[in-house]
Amino acid sequence: MTDDDIWDVAADVVVVGSGAAGFAAAFAAQQEGASVLMLEKAGFLGGTTAKSGAYFWIPNNHLLRERGLVDDRDRALRLLARLSYPQAYAPDAERLGLSALEYDLLAAFFDNAAPALQAMTDCGAFKPGLDMEMPDYCADLPEDAVPYGRHVFPDGWRSQQDIIAGRAVDDGGTRGEFMIAEFERQARLLGIDIRTDHRAVRLITDPDGSDEGAVSVAGLEVHHRTGTVLVRARRAVVFASGGFAHNADMRRQFLRGPVFGGCAAESSTGDFVTIAGEVGAQLGNMGNAWWSQIALEMALAQPSTIRDVFMPYGDSMVLVNRFGRRVVNEKMVYNERSQIHFHWDATHREYSNLLLFQVYDDAVATNEFDNPYRVPVPMPGESVRYVVSGETLEELADALDARLAELADRTGGVRLDGDFAEQLRATITRFDTLAGSEVDPDFGRGDSPIQRHWIGPGRREGMANPTMHPFAATGPYHAIILGAGMLDTKGGPRIDAQGRVLGVRGEPIRGLYGAGNCIASPSAQAYWSAGATLGVALTFGHIAGRAAAAEPVRAFGGLS
C-alpha cells in the first residue's frame, strides 16, 4: 500500500478558498510544476472577491513603469509603514521603527506585488488595465511619491466608477464574479482541480521531528455534503478561506468595537482561526478589519451586505451622533471614517458614536445625479423605509427617535439625547458658515484629492469647497441611521514573509501557508487605497503558492 492509498484524493499543493488569494496561490503553485487541488466550502466560487469591484492596488506595477513612473521602494515602504503602524513608525529608525517581521512583510508586499500581477498576466488569467485618474487614498501625505498609477483592474470592462461600484455586467453578475469566472476558466485549462461544497474542518498532521510537540501538515479532513473526504497534501496546504465577518462570537470576542454586518461572503466564518489554532498557530491583528459604514436597517435585514456607505452622498449633508454633533470628516475614506464608531465616551460610559445619523436636505434627496456612491440615499421618487424625514429639524428628531425606539432591542437601546434637535440646528448653522470657505477647520472635509475625486460634479460652479454646501433654510429634512461595518476582517494566524504560518513560539508550521483575509494581514490596521484588499491577497497568495510548491514531498506516518 502506498502513501496515497490512505487518502481519497491527493495533490502536491492543496488550496482552501477560491477568491483572489486562493487563485493566485493555485496559479503560482501550478506554474512551479506542482499539481494543485482547490477546495471551496460554498457551492460557488469566488468568496468575497466575487462581490468586489475587482480593483487591485499594486505598487511598482509594470503598467506604471511603462509610463515612465518610478515607484521608489524606500519611499513606498515609508508610506506603508506610516499607515500600517502609525504608533511605531519612526522614519529615521532602523526598519522605520517596526519589528523585523512587520517590516519584512511590508517589504515582501512591495517586492512581490508587481511580479504577482505579472505572473497572473503571463498565465492568461488576468489582463490588467491601469487607472491613472483615481488618486491614492492618502495622496495628500508626503510619503506618497506615486499618488496615481497603482490601481489596476481587469481591462476591457466599463468605466472606473462602474468597477468601483461593483455594478453588474451584462450577464447579471458583478465585476468580481466576472473576474472569478475568468480565473476559473484559465485554471481548468491549466489542469487545476477545483471542487466546491468541500469544507475543510481539520488539519491532518505528522510529528515534525525538529522540536518536541512540533508537527508538519500532511493533509486535511474535509466534509463534502454528508460525507468525509481525506485530502493528501504532498507538499503543503495554503489557506485562503476568508475572515470571520459572519461569525458573531468571534466578532464580539476580537474586534475593537461593535459592528452590524459586512459585505464579506457568508462563508467568511473564521474557519482558519479554529483549524490553525488546533495545531498551535499564533494569532495576530485580530482587532482589525477592512472597515466600512453601513445603513443600519439594511444590515439588520441582511448582515451580508451588498453595498456599503463608501462615501456619504451629498454636499448639504452632515454625520452627527446621538447628541447632534459632527464627529468626523464625512468625506474621509470609509476605512478611516468608520472607526469613529468605536470611540468610547468615558463620561457616558458608552460608545457614543455607535450609531451616526446622515442628515441631509431636500436638495440632496432630489438631486438626480446617479453617483456610484449615492447608496443608501435613494434616487428621487424611490421610497425606502430606512429614510426618516421631517418638515422641520424638530420633526426629524422626533421621527428619528421613534425609529430608534423600534430598533432598541438590536442596538443596545440607543436613543437621541434630549437636546438633539437644538444641537443639530447649531451644528448645521456652523456647517453652513464653513461651507462658504475653502477649508473645513473642524474636520478637514474636502482636503484630500480622493475626497474631491469621488463626489462627482459640484452643485454649482465656483464653489470654494465642492464637498460642502449650506443647508436649505426650510425642510423637508432627511436622515439615515448608520453603523460600523466591514468588507471583512483581517486577523488570524500570523505568517512570515514566505507565507508560512507561524506557531506560538514564532517557528513556521511545516507545510502550512496562508494568504488573504484569513490571516493576520501584513497591512495591519491600514487600508492603503482602493484595491488594497485584493492587492494584498493576490500578492501573498502568489508568495504562498510558490513557496508551497517548493516544499519537499514528505512521507506520511499514518492516521491515528
In which range does the helix fraction lie?
A: 25-40%
Shape designation: globular
- CATH architecture call of the largest domain: 3-Layer(bba) Sandwich
Distance between the termini: 17 Å
Beta-strand level of the residues, as a percent range?
15-25%
Largest sheet: number of strands, sense, barrel closure: 8 strands, mixed
Overall average residue pLDDT: 94
Number of strands: 18
Number of helices: 15
Give start-end ranges of low-pLDDT stretches: 163-172
- Radius of gyration over all CA atoms, rounded: 24 Å
User: Helix- and strand-based class?
Assistant: alpha+beta
Provide the CATH top-level class of the largest domain. Alpha Beta
**Which fold name is given in CATH as the topology of the largest domain?**
FAD/NAD(P)-binding domain
Q: Please, what is the CATH homologous superfamily of the largest domain? A: FAD/NAD(P)-binding domain
Instruction: Give the domain tally.
Output: 2
Features:
560 residues, alpha+beta, FAD/NAD(P)-binding domain, Flavocytochrome C3, Chain A, domain 1, 2 domains, 8-stranded mixed sheet, 5-stranded antiparallel sheet, 29% helix, flavoprotein, oxidoreductase, FAD, Cro/C1-type_HTH
